[in-house]
Amino acid sequence: MVDDLDAVFRALADPTRRAVLDALFVQDGQSLLSLCDAFPEMTRFGVMKHLTVLEAANLVTTRKEGRTKRHFLNPVPIQQVADRWIGKYAQPFTRALVDLKAEVEGATERNYA
User: Fold this and answer.
1) What is the 3-state secondary structure (H, E, C) of the chain?
2) Do 3 and 42 lie in a common domain?
3) Average pLDDT estimate for 73-90
């Protein structure tokens, strides 16, 4: 279980991989070509490398459909991390702090607008 969590943390540590997960959240089951379109600054090989890391962490699963390989978000490892760490630190308290931070930042933005 520890090795699995390490792989998830390593995968989530990269902002591009988080963006790939966000793209799959918006539209699940994308092909490599459609993911490459979402990241025009990256080569196809670069997108494939990020997908490989995400698959190794079990955050993305794939399914072949003819000649096309579809990529799907697997939120289970993220939930396992949340259960392990947020539950440990008392989620109601952390939720209140996150909400307070959002409120303070929103008030600050409104004052400068």
Assistant:
1) CHHHHHHHHHHHCCHHHHHHHHHHHHCCCEEHHHHHHHCCCCCHHHHHHHHHHHHHCCCEEEEEECCEEEEEECCHHHHHHHHHHCCCCCHHHHHHHHHHHHHHHHHHHHHHC
2) yes
3) 82
